[in-house]
Specification:
Pfam family, one: Hydrolase
Keywords: Hydrolase
GO molecular function, one term: hydrolase activity
Structural class: alpha/beta
Strand content: 5-15%
InterPro entries: HAD-like_sf, HAD-SF_hydro_IA, HAD_sf, PGP-like_dom2
Helix content: 40-55%
Shape: globular
Protein name: HAD family hydrolase
Length: 214
Amino acid sequence: MEAVIFDLDGVLVDSETTWDEVRRAVVHEFHGTWRDESTRAMQGMSTPEWAAYLAHDLGVRLRPADVAQVVIERMARRYAEKPPIIPGGPDVVREVAKHWPVAIASSSPPLLIKAFLDITRLPVPTAVSSEQVGAGKPAPDVYLKAAELLGAEPKNCAAVEDTTNGLLAALAAGMAVYAVPNPHFPPDPAVLARTTVVGTITDLPAALTSQPDA
């Protein structure tokens, strides 16, 4: 194994419900219509993708660029008030970084990734947002870019994910995938079956070091 690449939302920060609350509020405030499937549909989407979804599919009466600005500004305020860091997550990254290069491959915009890294001061030299690549998850682009920046072969990387679309993205990149199932939005059992499942993020270091080639 050459490197370990972490997702952010749902793995290191408990932000999936915050994203959901903020987007729902924006949809209702700007005269759109929320759908039952909207939450899962947007998991893993890049910022341009989910902004277009809110504007075009859910009928929010703003241009996609303005939708993105409103949502991200509100998310940034939430982070500033109380970052929803998952207990033990930063310590796990520090422990893993003692053994392998680490990176973040996230659907969050660069502003929020930077806010998280500034708060935690983690030793993460490489962080990639799906805004910076061709497509959001479940496409593998963000994972492939992170591996490239680390100088690692994707097949020799481990990815840590929590949702169906994230797991699919890492699997499509050809990585060994470790799933920390999101309790709020449980991933598809059929997709989970293709991964190594760990109960919580704090179980990850032991799972990584237990592999024969670790």
